[in-house]
Amino acid sequence: MLKNTTEQFGSLAKLFHWLAAVAIISLFGWGVWMVDLGYYDEWYHEAPHYHKSVGILLAVLMVARLIWRFFDPIPKPVRTHQKFEKIAAKLTHWVIYLLVFAIMTSGYLISTADGSGIDVFEWFTIPALGQGFDQQEDIAGDIHEWLAYILIGLASVHALAALKHHFIDKDDTLKRIL
Amino acid sequence: MKHSLIALLVFATLSYGASAADYTIDTRGAHASINFKIQHLGYSWLTGRFNQFSGDFSYDDKNPSAAKINVEIDVTSIDSNHAERDKHLRSGDFLDVDKFATAKFTSTKITDQGDGKLEVVGDLTLHGVTQSITIDAKKIGEGKDPWGGYRAGFAGNTKLRLKDFGIPERLGPASTEVLIELHVEGVRKK
Fold first, then answer.
1. Which of A50, A51, A167, B53 has the largest CB neighbor count within 10 A?
2. Which of A34, A37, A39, A134 to mutate to test the interface with B (most CBs of B within 10 A)?
């Protein structure tokens, strides 16, 4: 089923969720690795290029995902969940969305601070808006890094909570998205 | 009117007493620049500059050896026309501007070499390290400007070894030295 039901996520929502999860975790690991590459490493130029390309495509995916979510309401909370669990889950989901968009925005601001656009796999170029504030690449860089660590922390909590529901509470929380 | 009269008197007295004139480097009008270049892999030159700095000097054409110069550079203003590279240059890998945001140059000995040439020896503090460096300078010209001021200008060159200032050599064997090119125009202080 393409669309969500009241009990189960639809295939499109699942696809969006898991594509985003793989992309975000890969971008994080890739990012941590690439910032320490030496000048003479053969990946010195290629690694950031792929990081930025995948990041831009993730941005497109996330916008599509939000639009789809608007047309396709998510399932009702699992009945056995406690009230605080429902609130915590909802809050976590929205903070994750917010962090993802903040990280993508700050990433964009690093690369475009000198007015140059972002090439996506030599396929198309996202134009730059130019410099908005002083030391833009440094400030945006710090924000990008810190928010990425926070996002991965929060996503880990999100994943651990899902596993706890599956293995300890033995409810349908995780199955609904698989 | 009264103020300007007093100012005129003070100015007249001061200029009568002073042997060398004091100048402020015209950074506001951007008639001064601190440019650098370093080899890229040994195949070409990468150029850049520091956008923010300030300073002053004193200079008397009749006694150039008595000249003095002080310059303070905002290292965070490094600009090589590439945001990601500038970010990297400011990081702990190179200039570490979080710790060493300013660089300073103070002349210690200026030698007149005739023909408008000057050898400027001074202490440069960069990346938290102070080293004596020598700048080969040349006077370009001096005289009245069209707006009621008086200006004098110089050009200078020097070479810095990154290692001397504790900056890691990460750019390969061709890129261990950075060439600095200075253009300084001063407006005489009133």
1. B53
2. A39
- Are B84 and A39 in contact by the 8 Å Cβ rule? The answer is no
- Reply yes or no on whether the pLDDT at A17 is more than 90: yes
B82/A39 Cβ within 8 A: no
- Check pLDDT > 60 for residue B68: yes
Q: Which residues of B touch A (CB under 8 A)?
A: 76, 81-84, 86-87, 90, 170-172
The pLDDT of A27-31, averaged and rounded, is: 97
CATH number of B19-188: 2.40.128.110
Nearest Cα neighbor of A157 from A78, A93, A69, A70 is A93
State both tokens at B118: 């000057």
Chain segment A114-159, per-residue pLDDT in tens: 888 999 998 999 999 978 888 899 999 999 999 999 999 999 999 9
Report residue B146 CA to chain centroid gap.
24
Residue A132 within a domain? yes
Does the ipTM surpass 0.95? no
Inspect the interface and report whether the beta carbons of A114 and B83 lie closer than 8 Å: yes
For residue A20, being part of any structural domain is answered with yes
A106 has a chain B CB within 8 A of its CB: no
What would the two tokens of residue B84 be? 């990601």
CATH number at residue A66: 1.20.950.20
Task: Determine the distance in angstroms separating the CA of A110 from the nearest CA of chain B, rounded to an integer.
Answer: 7
Q: Is residue A2 part of a domain?
A: no
For residue A104, what are the domain limits? Answer: 11-177
Contacts of B12 (CB under 8 A, 6+ apart): none
Q: How many domains does chain A have?
A: 1
Q: Which of A137, A139, A143 to mutate to test the interface with B (most CBs of B within 10 A)?
A: A137
Whether residue B170 and residue A39 make contact (CB cut-off 8 A), yes or no, is yes
Residue A171: CB partners within 8 Å, gap ≥ 6? A78, A80, A81, A165
The pTM of this model reads: 0.78
- Does A93 map to a domain? yes
CB contact under 8 A, A39 and B172: yes
